Amino acid sequence: MALVTALRRLAHVRLREYSWRTAAVTSSAGAWLTGQRSFTTGTHSLRSDNKVTVHFINRDGEKITAKGSPGDSLLDIVINEDLDFDGFGACEGTLACSTCHLIFDEDVYKTLGPVTDEEMDMLDLAYGLTDTSRLGCQICLTRSLEGLVARVPESVADIRQSKDGSS
Amino acid sequence: MSGHKMIFSGLKVWTKGRSRPAWISRFHDGMNGRGKASFSTCSPKVCIVGSGPAAFYTAQSLIKARQDVEVDLYERLPVPFGLVRFGVAPDHPEVKNVINTFTQTAKHPRCSFYGNVNVGKDVSVKELQQAYHAVVLSYGAEGNRSMGVPGEDLAGVYSAKDFVGWYNGLPSCRELSPDLSCETAVILGQGNVALDVARVLLSPIDILKKTDITQPALEALAESQVRRVLVVGRRGPMQVACTIKELREMVNLPNTRPDMVAADFEGVTEALKDLPRPRKRLTELMLKTAVEVPGEKEKRNKASRFWGLRFFRSPIEILADPDTNRTAGIRLGVNKLEGSGEGARAVLTGEVEDVTCGLVISSIGYKSIPIDPSVPFDSRKAIVPNNMGRIEQAAGLYCSGWLKTGPTGVIATTMNNSFDTARSMVEDMDSGTLDVSTARTGSQSICALLGKRGVKPVTFSDWEKIDIVEMRRGEATGKPREKLLTVEEMLQVARKNN
Ligand code: FES
Predict the structure, then answer these.
(1) How far apart are the CA of B396 and the centre of ligand 1, in A?
(2) What pLDDT digit, counting tens, does each position of B341-400 carry?
(3) Is A126 helix (H, G, I), strand (E, B) or coil?
(4) Where are the domains of chain B?
(5) Which coarse location class applies to the principal site listed for this UniProt protein (chain A) (predicted)?
(6) Rounded to the nearest 5 degrees, what angle is found at the Cα of B159, between the Cα atoms of B157 and B162?
(7) Any binding-site annotation on B439?
(8) What value does the mean pLDDT take over residues B24-49?
């Protein structure tokens, strides 16, 4: 289990690094990266027929619908689909920031699978932590999560402002 | 003006920074020789002092919120990223991933980095204010709180800030060369920095040598005789300032055994149930570590190194060895708590306790220092007095990061507080409170001024030369990076013509 998680994390980092390098126009290790890329693209196109649909509720309360492949994390979807949630995923899915915090309805939360101590540790630092909070980078899509709704919590500022308003 | 708006409306997606559309790079290459857009009139020009997380998150948010704003970052050192480079522990590379986003911000056509510029010395805040519509101070907290006890200046006493700076390659801490020939180290303070230091002191060298810790620090730690690290707090287990991730790392540190005082945890079990989840889980982990089941203990018995949290103790005096005049111990005052929970106060009982140790590291907090007499400063709180990032009684001046809030919180805290400041600024621009209707000269006049004063800024592409050299050097020894340790060397690499 630990090994699987570790490998998955490694894959995450590689992917991020890859995209960043593309933006940075770095050419070293180009061949390797190209290999990585075609592999990824290939997987995606193969599975394009069984994409999973998920909905995010952003900080303004708007519903945003996006699709991902089984195995993608919710953070992957936010990035791949260019969803504009300020500051989301700062540590790039390595369990070091809690900015990918998402809130679920209780029945959905129960279907998301077990939470590791390490995820709980980072979650404990999240703003507006709830009993049904999870970190988006740790949740992998499966077919059974079709139609899932995830709420992006308000930032501190939003919370403080609404407090100020009501007092 | 409207032309600019149209050009930039396509830039919405830049923050997420997957592949940046090719036309953007084409576009900004075409603008001028240095690859940065220069707009003649009426784009709001903002300058940020500092280039750590607060500076970059403020810049990111501003650039995104307004399609016309231009942001320049001024950094004292030739290298960017502040505490992400010089504060984050070398064995926490994941946290440093934020650098990827910062790099995208720095490479944005409306953002420029000017390293090697010491604001307050090379150029004044007043001068920046004349050249820019707004100035944001995000230079953080580079001072440290002193313990204010006798013996504080003895050899063998260091501030955590310097110690961290030393193993992370901060040029001003290069000469620290701490003496690690003693067996016991006492760290004062129980925040995450304290635990970072404890972890680095006790980590197996095989772990550290795969990180970007500096070579001199690695060598010193390989020779270190430190076997026991006590992390001392004024208050009790319910008040520790560290977060659970860092505590768990200590608990799981290979070849190391926790050594706590079970009596410190009296009454803690009973209090657990009323705690909010984060504090509860943190306390439970501590409790479990303190009163470990016997089997676990035997398993760890082979451990040759120890760490422990010590509670209800305040430093009274650092004790010197009369012969060498070096640190030989510390006298701690025993405290009792008044009140309970987060707000409990430590009060000295009059009882004292001496602990033998050759190394004392004080980790009781960083502290911002004033940069310029013209900027208001609250020296008691060591922050710039502000309202949502607007510096009080100083129109056009803003702050973000630790200078704004005080030196606490994780990266997400700084991110949110920086977004807040950017939001205040955009509000002020929109409402006209911040007048951006007349053109400002921005970096053009500041660079001219710096040139006259013999200061040559380091650009972001200069930094990338340093970056490449550091990574290449690291590769040779199996590290992600081998940092350049002096400003001179950094400048030399930065100025090389490819
Ligand atoms: S992206 Fe940082 S913890 Fe999920």
Answers:
(1) 35
(2) 888 999 999 999 999 999 999 999 888 989 888 899 998 888 999 999 999 888 999 999
(3) coil
(4) 45-142+368-458, 146-364
(5) mitochondrion
(6) 115
(7) no
(8) 57
Task: Out of A16, A19, A120, name the one closest to residue B281 (CB).
Answer: A120
Distance from CA of A157 to the nearest CA of B (A): 6
The per-residue pLDDT for range B250-297, each reduced to its tens digit, is 999 999 999 999 999 998 999 999 899 999 999 999 999 988 755 565
Assign residue A140 a region (left: φ > 0; alpha: ψ between -120 and 50; beta: otherwise): beta
User: Binding residue per annotation — B119?
Assistant: yes
Fold classification of B146-364 is: FAD/NAD(P)-binding domain (3.50.50)
Residue type for B357, please?
C
Q: Please answer yes or no on whether B18 and A94 come within 8 Å at the CB atom.
A: no
Does B101 lie at the interface with A, CB-CB under 8 angstroms?
A: yes
How would residue B214 be classed by pLDDT, with cut points 50, 70 and 90? very high
Mind listing the pLDDT tens digit for each residue in B78-100?
A: 999 999 999 999 999 999 999 99
Q: Which residue has the tokens 């193969």?
A: A46
How far, CA to CA in Å, does B333 sit from each of B153, B202, B267, B351? 19, 26, 22, 6
Domains of chain A: 60-151 (3.10.20.30)
In terms of C-beta density within 10 A (0-12 exposed, 13-18 middle, 19 or more buried), how is residue A20 classed? buried
The B residues from 174 to 233 touching A (CB cutoff 8 Å) are none
In angstroms, the CA A73 to CA B377 distance is 45
Give yes or no for residue B111 having a pLDDT over 50: yes
Chain A interface test: which of B11, B13, B195, B416 (most A C-beta within 10 Å):
B416
ipTM of the complex: 0.85
* Fold match between domain B45-142+368-458 and domain B146-364: no
Residue B371's closest CA among B146, B162, B142?
B142
B192 is in an annotated binding site: yes
Q: Has this prediction a pTM greater than 0.90?
A: no
Lowest pLDDT segment from A154-158, B93-97, B218-222, B470-474: A154-158
Spatial CA neighbour of A122 closest among A91, A162, A160: A91
A133 C-beta closer than 6 A to ligand 1 = no
User: Are B324 and B148 a contacting pair, CB within 8 Å?
Assistant: no
